[in-house]
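Researcher: Can you fold this with iron/sulfur cluster in place?
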Amino acid sequence: MKLPPAPAMQGITQLSPSVYEVLLRCRARGAWAAHGDRTALPLLPQALLGTAFHATMEAANKGAFASLDSDAQLVEARRTFDDCACRLFVRAHPLLRAKFSAAEKLPYYNLYRERAALEAQQYAGLQQPPERGELAAIKGERSDAELRLVSADGLIGGRPDLIDYAAEELVDYKTGPAPADALAEVSDTEVRQLTLYAHLAHENGIRIERGVIARANGVRSVIAISREDATREAHRARAVLADYNSRATEAFESAAQPSTTACRFCPCTSFCESFWRSARPEWADDCGIHVEGVTRQIERASIQGVELTTIRLNVTRGTVAAGDAHVEQIPDAWIQADGSGPLQNGDTVRIVYARIASESPSRVFRVDRVATSIWTL
Ligand code: SF4
C-alpha cells in the first residue's frame, strides 16, 4: 500500500475533550484527531466494534428499546449493533476488508455485541422515548444521550455519552482497557475528559456533581467533580487550544512531539517522519514493533491457496535495531489492498505493528492480522 502523506496542519476553532487530551501529548497527533482523513488509514477492529457499542448505547439511552420487553430489548440491541458494525465495515479501509471477510469475523465481535446488548438492556428500561427540542425542554427529561454542548465562548464543544439530570451525573462509556495502574479506577485522561464535559454542562445551565466511567465489562467508577475543578480544566484547555492555534501554520513534521508516551497507539505512526527519526529499540515495549527498511530479496509462495510474500530487509530505522532481517509470510492481499502492485527489490517499506518471531540465528518478523499494516514510500 502507498503511504499516505502527512496532513496539512489547520487551526482548530472548537476543541473537544478528546482532541484536548491528544493535544496535551502531541500537536501533530492533535491535528490528525481534529482534521485527519480517517479513510486514509485502517481502523483497528476494536475501534470499529467500540463505535458499534456506543451506537447501541446511544439508541438505548434515547429510548429506542424502552417500549419492549426485556427479551426483545436484547434482540433489538443486538440488531442495532450488527447494523452499525456492518455499515462501518462496508466503508472501512480496504486493508481491514482484506484481512476479514465480514464484520462478524472481527476478533471479539460476539463479546462486544453481547456486552453492548446487556448494557443497553440495563439502560433501556430506565428511559422514556424523549421529546426532542430546545435545551430548556430537554432539561425537564430524566436524561439525554449525545447532547451537543458548546461553551459560552464557542471554544469548547462536545457530546457526553449520557447526562443523567436527576442524578446530576455525566456518564462516559469505555470499551477499551481499564487504566494500567490497577489502583486507579479512573485514569487521569478520563478524569480530564469528564471534568471538561462537566464544564460544558455548567455553561449550558445543567448541574453536574459527578462523572461516571462505565466500562464494557460492567464496572462503573464514579468521581466527584466540583465546579471549580471544571472551570480550572477549561482554563487549561483554552490555553492549550490558543498555543496550538498560534502554531497552526507549521508543518506536521515540526509540530510533532515524539516520545514513548505521545506515540503509544498513535494512528499517525506510519507517515510521521518525526516518529521514524526519533524511534529507538528501547521504545518497542511502549510503542510496539515498527520497522523501516529497504527490500533486498523477495520470495513468493502459495500456501493453502493464500499468496504470501517473504522479504529480506536491510532495516534502517524504527523501534528495532538496524541490520539484516526477514519479514515472513505477508499475505499479498494485505500488500496490495489499496490496488498497489507487489513489492519490488529496492522498495523502502514500513511495517507498522509487526511481531518478533525470532532473534537468532537470524532476525525474523511476522505480521499480525489485527494490527499490522505494510506501506511503501
Ligand atoms: S507518531 Fe508520535 S510524533 Fe508523530 S504524530 Fe503521532 S504522537 Fe506525534
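Model: Folded with iron/sulfur cluster in place. The first strand starts at residue 143 and ends at 145.
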